[in-house]
Amino acid sequence: MANLVDDLGQEMLYLPGTASLIQDIDKRVMVVLRDGRTLIGYLRSLDQFANLLLTQTVERIHVRDKYGDIERGVFLIRGENVVLCGEVDFKSSKFKNLTQVPQEEILTNSSRRAKKKKEEKTKSY
């Protein structure tokens, strides 16, 4: 990639907007959606509207220090639903204190947590 220069004549180390995602094509990325879901997959394609195409996608659900992955396969995401997208180092020590549990267990824990939040919300009214 050629060196880009901004208005002040300083070298830019990034591409602005969606163009910055071009360097992540064919890499494993994590995408956080507007509805709160977290998807992890290989970024295969994107366009100027930040519409993303992920393959080998899993939906990761976190409940406290546990997580579970649900296989989703090929996933096309409309750009307006993307909150965050980037490459993640899963070998990092930040992920070592999380425990992976089976899909059924994480779904049960997640629904319990949502139900509890809903009850607390209705009590506050």
How would you summarize this macromolecular structure in one to three sentences?
The chain has 125 residues and is α+β, with helices and mostly antiparallel strands. It is built from 1 helix and 8 strands; from the N terminus they run E-E-E-E-E-E-E-E-H.
Write up what this structure looks like.
It contains one helix and eight strands, in the order ββββββββα. The protein has 125 residues and is α+β, with helices and mostly antiparallel strands. A six-stranded mixed sheet has the order 7-3-4-5-6-8. Strands 1-2 form a two-stranded antiparallel sheet.
In helices, the fraction of residues equals 10-25%
Number of strands: 8
Count of helical regions: 1
Biggest sheet layout: 6 strands, mixed
Distance between the termini: 56 Å
**Uncertain residue ranges:** none
**Which structural class best describes the helix and strand composition?**
alpha+beta
Q: What is the CA-based Rg, rounded?
A: 18 Å
Q: What number is the mean pLDDT?
A: 84
Q: In terms of topology, how is this protein built?
A:
Blueprint lengths: L3 E2 L5 E2 L15 E6 L4 E9 L5 E12 L2 E12 L4 E6 L11 E2 L2 H21 L2
Parallel strand pairs: 6-8
Antiparallel strand pairs: 1-2, 3-4, 3-7, 4-5, 5-6
